[in-house]
Amino acid sequence: MDFKKLSIFYGYRGRVCLSMVLQAAGVKKGDYVACQSFTCVAVPEAIISIGARPLFIDTENAFVNLSLDDLEKKISKNKLVKAVVIQHTYGIKFSSKKISFLKNKYNITFIEDCCHLPFDIHNFENEEDEFIKFYSFEWGKPFPLGIGGALLIKNKKIAEACKKLEKNFKNPPLLNILKIELQYYVFQYFYSPSNYFLLKKLFHLFNKLGFSISNKSENNNFLSNQEYSWKISPFVKKRIQSLNESKKFFLLRHNKKILKIFSNNLNLKDKIIEKNYEEFLMRYPIIVKNKIELLKFAEKNNLEISGWYKKPVDPLSIQDCQKLGWNIKSCSNSIINAETIVTLPLNLKTSLSDAERISRQINIFLNKD
């Protein structure tokens, strides 16, 4: 592997890649890692897995990415912050100019959570600036290839440290590999926006019966979770390595078509996404006042409308979030987001007619108020 170029590593999950790169960056037990407060538990879980502590940063008002002001306010007061995880929520990119500004101002490691963005190595090979980006490929991600994670690094020192850590990784149990394959093919052949809730219930049943693997880690004791020493499934790795520019182009082209339908057809008072938005989105987020009622309406009418994230650190309760160091007073925007944001599908399985039907039904629901 030529460390002058892009270095690629793999892990059993995206959070395994994050855990590995935090160790490679020199984050120690008792250090803090800043991360967004509107996120899934995978991010703080990876931080805690190495004995570090998450420092939760609130999102911007009426938006889904972290607040630069809140980030600077909190890391300037805490000298034990050794790294920051920048999340591109739902595929909405955090400003690259802001990331450059932060890198130049603070002598800490910045890691991009790209789990909501399409995996791509071709656009980064000629980049001069150093970076660290990790990806996930579970159900719901831009490329749903099966449980697994990838890590892209353009930093010689950290890449070399990751290479040493990777040598200690071992293969996951064969049963886990088979379960991942079962989930992958069930999703490929049976998922569509119209049976989203049915398939979701089926996966929950499979989890209870032990036939599938949850998106959550199997061991809730993050410090002793064996998954953090597991390699990626060889079948998932092979599918990731088969990705090419044509597959990404096809995804982006379809994504724009669906996005345009939602942008033009939805009658929304408050918008997160502007009508002329043309970049990739993993899911289309909208703000609603009656989120719980809309989700019930969606399930009744077989519409793929997701409440994700339903909690600020999903799926943890507020009480469990607070046990991780999440502060209800300093993360108020994240609470509002969890209570008001739902998301719509933009994936390759979502047809134009699916998008039109979802838009039409949402408008019917909103007009009832």
Describe the structure.
The structure is a single chain. The protein is 41% helix and 14% strand. It is α/β, with parallel strands linked by helices and 369 residues long. The strands form 3 sheets. A 7-stranded mixed β-sheet has the order 1-8-7-6-5-2-4, with helices on both faces. The N and C termini lie far apart (59 Å).
Question: What keywords describe this structure?
Answer:
alpha/beta, 369 residues, two-stranded parallel ribbon, 13 helices
- Report strand order across the widest sheet: 1-8-7-6-5-2-4
Tell me the overall shape: globular
**Residue-averaged pLDDT:** 93
End-to-end separation in angstroms reads: 59 Å
Please outline what is shown here.
The chain is of the alpha/beta class. 41% of the residues lie in helices and 14% in strands.
Topology:
Blueprint: E1 7-11, H1 14-24, E2 32-36, E3 39-40, H2 42-48, E4 53-57, H3 68-77, E5 81-87, H4 96-105, E6 109-113, E7 131-136, E8 149-154, H5 156-166, H6 174-190, H7 196-209, H8 234-241, H9 245-265, E9 283-287, H10 291-300, E10 313-314, H11 318-323, H12 332-340, E11 341-345, H13 352-367
Helix pairs in contact: 1-2, 1-5, 9-13
